[in-house]
Amino acid sequence: MKNLKIITTGGTIDKLYFDDLSDYQIGKPIIGELLNTYHVGFDFEVVPLMKKDSIYITDEDRELIRQVIAKSDEQHFLITHGTDTMVDTARFLHGIEDKTIVLTGALTPARFNATDAIFNIGCAVAAVQTKPPGVWVIMNGLVWDPEHVRKNRKANRFEEV
């Protein structure tokens, strides 16, 4: 992998909470800061495409993501995305040829002490380098084909369909 293009869309991974009533904003993407802190051995570019909770991501937003990937010279893409509609976006991106596209997110914000964000990002970086071209969802330490995964809100995890 020569270069990794990271597209950020918002979601819990970048949320900032302000009070006990769960008032939040989507903050500046944190993934670039994390990768720099860990001194990764590859070049990357962070493209902050939008700051949305995934329940507000539309097919027009998904088309924008698709166009950015299709027009890019890079072959490897990591997309940070809210978990509620991550699978929908992954399915929308199906069919982009000769690109490895990995979507990941977090069930708790990256800025929290007990977060799954850093683990999920690490798994996504490994997957984008080792999986063949196609679209993949990375959550809970597993690599999923978007056609065979869903978020189980009650269990607060992703599971096979």
UniProtKB/TrEMBL annotation:
Keywords associated with the record: Hydrolase
Enzyme class: hydrolase
MF GO annotations: asparaginase activity
EC number: 3.5.1.1
Pfam families assigned to the protein according to its UniProt record, in alphabetical order: Asparaginase
Domain L-asparaginase N-terminal: 4-154
Superkingdom as given in the UniProt entry: Bacteria
InterPro entries: Asp/glu_Ase-like_sf, Asparaginase/glutaminase-like, L-asparaginase_N, L-asparaginase_N_sf
Name used for this protein in its record: Asparaginase domain-containing protein
